[in-house]
Amino acid sequence: MRQVVWNAIEVELPDDWELLQFSKDASHGRLAFADRYQFRFELDWTTISLPPDLERMASDYLSKLKEDGLEEPRKCIHLPWRGACGKEKDNLVSRYTNYYPGRGLLLEAIFLWPDQKKHSTSFEAKVLDSIAVAPYREDGLQHWKAYGLDFIVKEEHYLKQLVAEPGNTVFTFRSQNKREVETFARLGFLDSWLNIPVQDWIKSRIPENFTITSTNQQETSEHQVSLLSAKRSPTVLVDWIWGTRTFLAAAWICPKQEKLFLVTKLTPSNKKNKQPPISLTCCEDMEISL
After folding, report:
1. What value does the mean pLDDT take over residues 87-116?
2. What is the pLDDT of residues 134-157, one digit of tens each?
3. Around Cβ 45, how many Cβ atoms within 10 Å?
4. 268 or 81: which carries more pLDDT confidence?
5. Beta carbons within 10 angstroms of residue 154's beta carbon
6. Nearest to residue 205, comparing CAs of 221, 181, 188?
């Protein structure tokens, strides 16, 4: 089983189920996972203002599914999860709902079973028991774990862009005022494109009109880490108002995964704008913070 943490929602699924569809919206969205043959699991979320009546919702849900053509409908319960099960075309489908008051999130977990003989209520229970919603943290940070990346980012920042390709995964987060940006990347197939040292490659990540202020090399748990900082130059009016924009970056090749990991942070820098550190982990005992 492999853990995925997305938008404060945690779930454990078989490690050969790939995340193929995702939503960036923190208030309403879905994740969909598939094995080598078809989609097998979907996790939907929506933010609601008042706690729902889950038992009544399950009954209404079952009635709606009957109207939509669900065959052999029946209630499915694995407390605190409630829902409905039945046949849809050639699939046996189980749909469960649960509410998490800490964040006002209503979750729906959907299991798709292409062969009824393989249906396992104990497996469904195991997955449902693994689902959790992390509480708000006092430091204002949030944990994410998906696509081979395990990182900590500011809770208030939204997922602006995600590139999820074979050998190329990049998460980009941004503040609502657009003044802060963080990226977390995991890059593979290094033999085909990385033909310079990491300490030189990391310089290519510097934004336009930024000047390097320092570089450094350090060894952490047998990982050779290249560190870099830069600042906006020349300073413009917005920097006088909010603080000079600074760019921090760290990059390294994980010897266990043979992948290049990168974490960057672009943020205004002044005495009043103290930022909690973001971090990226590639393997056990290896974490870099900026």
Report:
1. 89
2. 999 999 999 999 999 999 999 999
3. 23
4. 81
5. 20
6. 181
Nearest to 188 by CA among 266, 259, 257, 136: 259
DSSP 36: S
Helix (H) or strand (E) holding 88: strand 81-88
Which residues on neighbouring strands pair with residue 247, listed in sequence order? 230, 266
Q: Distance of alpha carbon 94 from its chain centroid, rounded?
A: 25
CB-based burial label for 79 (10 Å; 0-12, 13-18, 19+)? exposed
pLDDT of residue 56: 81
Please state, as a whole number, how many other Cβ atoms lie within 10 Å of the Cβ of residue 124. Answer: 21
Q: How many CB atoms lie within 10 A of CB 103?
A: 16
Cα dihedral sign, 7-23-29-38: negative
124-130-134-135 Cα dihedral, nearest 10 degrees: 90
As a whole number of angstroms, the distance between CA 204 and CA 195 comes to 13
Assigned token pair, 1: 């089983």
195 vs 201: CA distance, rounded Å: 9
What per-residue confidence (pLDDT) applies to 228? 96
- Using an 8 Å Cβ cutoff, are 204 and 167 in contact? no
Structure tokens at 104: 């006002």
Strands (E), 175-278: 181-187, 210-220, 223-232, 244-254, 259-269
Q: For residue 220, give every residue at least 6 positions away whose Cβ sits within 8 Å of its Cβ, in sequence order, or none.
A: 252, 286, 288
- The encoded tokens of residue 263 equal 């974490």
